[in-house]
Write a structure and sequence with these properties.
151 residues; seven-stranded mixed β-sheet; two-stranded antiparallel sheet; 9 strands
Length: 151
């Protein structure tokens, strides 16, 4: 079953504009939702960075969404500090709580981290992967392979 990832127009933690059009630049995009108060999300960031570096060559992108980073200036600073400390170089979205992306989609996320796998057309492939990715790499790989096999 394919459902479209919601359209969005947000800024990343550096203030750069980003929309769902970013998906069309890659064969697969992994979108990882995390928040400041959730230790397990933060612990896995070095693994995510390593994964990002390894997958880049295959035209696979990884984007983070710091779900609570847009709630205040203080939260944004905290998120930025976490990313710097963990050596993260992949793009991280800081969603505006006033926007539909936050209100209709992010607010429905039940646990962190939650990861979506999105194809070039912007469709979510498979169910969201809830919890740390390192224990679910086989699930993630299967989703990636499904997309790449349809190319």
């Amino acid at each position: 079953s394919k459902e479209p990832f919601p359209t969005f127009s947000e800024v990343d933690m550096e203030g750069n504009q980003i929309t769902e059009e970013v998906f069309s630049d890659y064969d697969v995009t992994i979108v990882n939702f995390w928040n400041n108060g959730w230790g397990t999300c933060i612990e896995e960031m070095p693994q995510l960075e390593e994964m990002y570096q390894n997958l880049k060559a295959e035209n696979i992108n990884l984007i983070g969404v710091g779900t609570d980073s847009g709630e205040s200036e203080e939260n944004l600073e905290t998120s930025r500090k976490i990313l710097t400390e963990k050596g993260v170089t992949f793009q991280n979205i800081s969603p505006d709580p006033e926007n539909a992306f936050y209100q209709d989609f992010i607010s429905e996320i039940l646990g962190y981290p939650t990861t979506y796998v999105v194809d070039k057309e912007g469709n979510i492939i498979g169910a969201p992967i809830i919890g740390n990715l390192e224990n679910q790499m086989d699930v993630l790989q299967k989703r990636i392979d499904t997309i790449l096999s349809e190319k």
